[in-house]
Amino acid sequence: MTEILQTDRAAIKAEFVRERGYWRPWTETLLREHPAFLRAYARYAGHPARRGPLSERMVELIYIALDASGSHLFEPGLRTHMTRALDLGVRPAELFDVLHLVAAQGLDGVTQAAALLAEECGLAPDSGHACGDALSALRALDPDYAAAVHEFLALHGPGDGLSAAEKCLLRVALAACFTAHHPEALRQHLREGLRFGLQRAELLQAIQLGAHLAVHGTALGAQVYASLTPPHTAPAATNP
């Protein structure tokens, strides 16, 4: 295997920071132990973030939703992306719209489970609402709870927040992410997004951004490895 020189490592670090916008102790460990992985990861993760049609602002809002999600709760990433979002001029009302959507994510499982329960119990969906209405089964089973859910979902933010299409993109990202993958909710959100006029490439980018959460497991492993091994000094540059 060809040895990667110190000059190559410096270039890999620069590329990683350019593509991902941060540098952490775990990336330093990987730069020392497996620099080729770090370079490949930067290119893979950086592709949708930097080359998709969504604005940098929207990308950061999606990352905030994914890191804050109850299925992930990754504070370091949340701090990184919220800081960047604030630097980009994102307003508090927009951030709290994101966090509202995060709080509502758990309802995807409730509505699907309620639909199964209603079906098994032979309850007909509420005929007064459109076919495919996610709350239809809940209305048949527990109308008061369904009303409370509707009120919670319809709640307006504390100011000028996100547009309906932007909220839809965030719902797509949350439902598509492997940490809480929900195909039925995802299908509903994709259909809604297309009705809003969102482009296929925009929806795809929202889907792609969720894959990068998996590297947090790599980061944890690299940190544990570093804590269990003696401190390393950087290898001296050599000729190939």
TrEMBL record:
<dbReference type="InterPro" id="IPR029032">
    <property type="entry name" value="AhpD-like"/>
</dbReference>
<dbReference type="InterPro" id="IPR003779">
    <property type="entry name" value="CMD-like"/>
</dbReference>
<protein>
    <recommendedName>
        <fullName>Carboxymuconolactone decarboxylase-like domain-containing protein</fullName>
    </recommendedName>
</protein>
<dbReference type="GO" id="GO:0051920">
    <property type="term" value="F:peroxiredoxin activity"/>
</dbReference>
<dbReference type="Pfam" id="PF02627">
    <property type="entry name" value="CMD"/>
</dbReference>
<feature type="domain" description="Carboxymuconolactone decarboxylase-like">
    <location>
        <begin position="35"/>
        <end position="120"/>
    </location>
</feature>
